[in-house]
Amino acid sequence: MSPRSKTGARKKKGKRRKDVRRARFRFYRGIGVTLVVVALVGFLYTYVSVTSRFGDSIWPIPSRVYSDVLLLEPGTVISAEEFAERLADSGYAKTTGATSRAGQFRYSGGTIEVHLREFDSPRQAADIGRYSISFRDGRVSAVRDGGGSWVERIVVEPLLLATLYGPRHEERQLVDLDDVPEGFRLAVISAEDARFYGHLGVDLRGILRAAWANLTHGRIVQGGSTITQQTVKNLFLGQHRTWWRKFREAGMSLILDARYEKDEIFEVYLNEVYLGQRGPVAVCGVEAAARFYFGLPLADLSLGEWALLAGMIRSPGNYNPFVHPDRAVERRGQVLDAMQRLGHIDVSQKEAAASEPLRLASGQRLSAPAPYAVDFVQAHLAERYPRSVLNTRGLRIYTTIDPTAQARAAAALKQGLERLEHGYPSVRGQLEERRLQGAVVVTSPSTGAIRALVGGRDHSESQFDRAVQARRQPGSCFKPMVFAAGFELAIQGEENGLTPATVLDDSPLELVSGGKNWSPANYDKTFRGSVTVREAIEASLNVPTVRAAERVGLERVVETARACGIRSPMAPLPSLALGTEEVSPLELASAFGTFANGGVRYAPWIIRSVTDSSGQTLEGQGIQSERAISPQTAFLVTDLMQGVFERGTAKSAVAHGYRGGAAGKTGTTDDTRDSWFVGYSADRLALVWVGYDDNARTGLTGATGALPIWVQIMKDEAEASPLRSRRLEGMVQRKIDPESGELATGGCPRVVEEYFVRGTEPDRDCALHQGRFKRWLRKFLGKNKGEKQGTGAPG
Hints:
The structure is a single chain. The chain is an alpha+beta fold. Among the domains are: 1-56; 63-159, Penicillin-binding protein 1b fold, CATH 3.30.2060; 170-354, Biosynthetic peptidoglycan transglycosylase-like (Penicillin binding protein transpeptidase fold, Orthogonal Bundle); 731-788, no CATH class. Helices cover 39% and strands 17% of the residues. The protein is built from 23 helices and 29 strands. The strands form nine sheets. Strands 9-1-13-21-22 form a five-stranded mixed beta sheet. The chain has a five-stranded mixed beta sheet with strand order 3-4-5-6-7, covered by helices on one side. A hairpin with a 4-residue loop joins strand 14 (437-444) and strand 15. Helix 14 runs antiparallel to helix 22 (702-720). The termini are far apart.
C-alpha cells in the first residue's frame, strides 16, 4: 500500500473514532440531561407535594357530641355509684389519697370528693376546684366546697357522648406551640432529637451515634431519625421500612427544613405524633394524649408526666402506663437523665420528677353509650352541615341528654325485655323466631328537652330507631286525646262537651268504620252499663270511649291530637278513638307532655347549641312552644290519669316498687301486638313501648309489658318530684254519684269527688237515689246537698 493510501486510511480511522466519541458524548449528555430533568421534576413534585400538604390544614378534626351539664344540688336524683361512673367516663382519676389536683376524685362511705377541672360550656361554665358531695338513698344530700362550707349548687362538665370521625379514626386536639410548656418541649427534644435546632433536617452525627450504640448493645437502643424525618414519615410515607423510603424520607426532610421554620415543623410534629390506642381510635398529638392518660390539659401536667409522655413517642405500646407501668416509669427515668445531661434540668429537679407516683386518669371509654340519641343528633345535623364539615372541622355539639337518665333507660329496657322473654310463655315460645324489642323516650315536659332516647335493645344488632322512626298503633294511650277534646267543648259551653262526671253508655255498639261494620268491645269482653268518663279512662274501656268520640266529633278529636303534638296522618274514623292510627313514640311522648305542662306544647328538641373549634356559637336551639289546650283541660286529664295509678290499669305499679305520685296511661293494641305506657311526675316524663318489629302478637298488655320497665326508669325520679295537682282559678270541686253523674245525696251508695271548670259542674241532685217527694221538696227549697265550694284543687 502506498504512503498516500496509508495516510488516507489513518484519517478515516481517526474520523470514525471522533464520530464514536461525539456519539458517546451526545448519548451521555442526553442521559445526563434526562437525569437532570427527571431529578428536577422529581424535586419539584416532591417540593410541591410537601409544601402544599404541610401548608394546608393537615388534619381532619372530628366533631364531638356532648351531653348536658350536670347540676348537683341537694335532692338531685343520682347515686354515688352513678356519679363516680360519670367521673370515670370523663377521664377523672380515682385516688385513695387527697384530691391534690384537678381531674381526681375519691369515693368513700357515701361521699365523693372531687377536684373539678375547667370546661367552658355554652350553657353554663363548669365549676372549678375541690368539692365534697354526700349521697343518701340515691340522691344528693349535701354539697360542700373545699373549705367545708355548704354550697347551694355546682355545675359539672358535660360528658362526651360520641366523636364523629371521618375515614381516619384519630383522636386529636390541636395545640399551638406557644401554648406548649417549655419543659415538655425540652423533654421531647431530649428524648427524640437533641440537635433538632442545629441540623438541616437529617443529622449524620446522630445516625452514626445511633448505629454505634445499636452495634455495641447488640440490639436497637437508639434511632437515628430526626424530628423532621419522623414528621415526614408520619405525614407522607407511612411505616414501611425500605431503603427507597429512607432515601425519600431524607430528601423530603431536607426540603421541609429548608422551606419552613423549625418551630413550624415542631408544632406539626407535636400535633401529629402517635401516642397509643383507645379501642379502635388512635390517640394522636400530645394534647389528646395528656387528656387520655392523665385527664388534664398538657399545660397542667408535672415534669415527670411530661417526661413520661415524651418517652412514649419511641414505642407507645411498650411504654403505655395503663398496661406497662413499670416500663413507662423506667423510660421516664431515661428521658429525665437525658434532660439533665443536656443541661435542661438540674439533679434536684430530676430526682423530684423521678419520684413522682403515677397519677393516671381512668383510662375508660371517655364517653357515654347513647348510640340512638347520637344517631338522632346526626340526622338533625345532616340537614344543616355537609358530612365533610362534621368529620373535619372540629364542631362541638351540646345536647340535652342526661347521661344518668340515658343509662337507666337503656338498662331498664334491656333487663325488662329479658325478664319478659323468660317470664311470659307467649314471649318465651317465640325466642327461636324473633326477639322482643322496645323503645324509651324521656323528656322534660316544661321545656320539651329530650333527656334520654333508646331506640332498641342493642344498637350493635339493629340501628333502626324505634323511638323516632317506628310507626305503631298507640292503642288506649290515644284515649286522653278524646276526653281532652270533650273537656274543651264543655269549657266553651257546647252541649256535646264532656266532664269527668259525664255518664257514658258501656253496652254493645255497632258502627260503620271505613265502609265496614265494626263492633268495638272492651278488653275483658264484658259491658258495665253506665260509667263515668273517669271510670272509662281508669279502666281503659273501649266502648264508652268510642261513644265519647262520636259525641264530641271525630274531626274535633283529630284537631286536639294535632294541637297536642301528633303529626302522623289521622283519619277521622270511629276506630281512631282506640288508637288505630299509627304514631311514633317520640310524638306520643310530646303529646302527653302537653298535658304534663298545663296545656302548653313544647316541640321536642335535643341540640342545645353548636360551636366551631374556636368556641364561636354557630347555632342555638330555640325552645318552640304554643298553647294547645286550656290549662283546665290539661288539669282534668292529668287528674284522671292519676286515677289510672290509684285504681286503674296501672295500679300494679306499686307491686313493681313505685311509690311516687304520677299520672299516666297504659296502651294495648288489638291482639296484644303493642304494649305502651306513658307517665309523668312533676318534671319528668317517660314513654315505654314493647313489641315485635314484624308486628307479631306478644300476649302482653300495657300493664304487663311496658309498665314494669317504666317503673324502673322513673321510680327514683317520681319519688323525688311527685306530681301534685296545681291549684287553678275557676275550678270547683263537687261530690257526685258516679252512677248518675249528678250531685250526690245522702241516699247515694257511692260518692266521689270530682273537679269541674266552673259552670260545667252538675246542677241537680242525683235522681236515682232519693224519693219523689224529697226531690220535689229540695227543688222547691233550692238546696243541693252535694255541693262543696272551692276555688281550686288542693296543692
